[in-house]
Amino acid sequence: MDDDEEQPMTAAESLNLIARQNERTRRELGAGPARLLGVWAFTWLVGWGLVFFSNDFHARPLMPGWVAGIVVAVLFVAAIAYSAYYGSRISRGIRGPSRRTGAMYGWAWMIAYAGLALVNVRVMQTGRLDPHTISLLWSGTSLLLTGVLYLTAGMLWQDKLQYGFGVWIIVCGGASVFAGVPGNFLVLSLAGGGGFLVASLVYFVRERRCGPARVVDP
């Protein structure tokens, strides 16, 4: 056999090549998770912060509560739209099981939150909850579900940062309920939004310092 003939790659080398190609595609498309997490950090910090400072308990609310609610809604719609855009860009360079897993995970967010909304709205319709309890219900259950979904992402992609972030968001969910109203909005803003910001910064540093992702042969 000719010595110059290219030798076939091992299974580990093939997996590492695929991982490097996927990582390169993500970088070329500008689809790193740092930017996405940064968008959600801004949404939570600003949106829920405005709700907290526009609450009636303040002697001079920053703005009427209904205006703050509209701002929060606009911010969340924009963040969701960007998330969909992010998902479509990152999926362009990925094929096979990885793309299918990513798509299923993306749908899991929409399905889970649709179910959460149905449950919470039905509980509200019983008329047995006062406005403060309803506020705690939404903040607590939303954070709990968000944390569980990040735990799932951490398990799927073996990402300790996402798994740890999921744990943090679940802790924030419990803290928001104990904080009461309007303290729960401050927890959402500072602890929840701050958590997104820290995760964004960690991913940003990782993307700048680390080379292409590698698949380690077990």
Task: Give descriptors for this structure.
218 residues
**Stretches with pLDDT under 50, minimum 5 residues:** 211-218
Shape: elongated
Fraction of residues in β-strands:
under 5%
| Secondary-structure class | mainly alpha
| Largest beta-sheet characterization | none
**Which percent bin holds the helix content?**
over 70%
**Number of DSSP helical runs:** 7
The number of distinct β-strands equals: 0
Mean residue pLDDT = 81
Distance between the termini: 31 Å
Could you tell me the radius of gyration in angstroms?
Answer: 21 Å
**What is the string of SSEs from the N terminus onward?**
HHHHHHH
Folded structure, characterized:
It is a single chain. This protein has 218 residues and is mainly α. The chain has helices at 11-28, 33-53, 65-90, 97-125, 131-156, 160-179, 183-209. The protein starts with 10 loop residues before the first helix and ends in a 9-residue tail after the last helix.
Topology:
Blueprint: H1 11-28, H2 33-53, H3 65-90, H4 97-125, H5 131-156, H6 160-179, H7 183-209
Short description:
Helix content is 77%, strand content 0%. By secondary structure, the chain is mainly α.
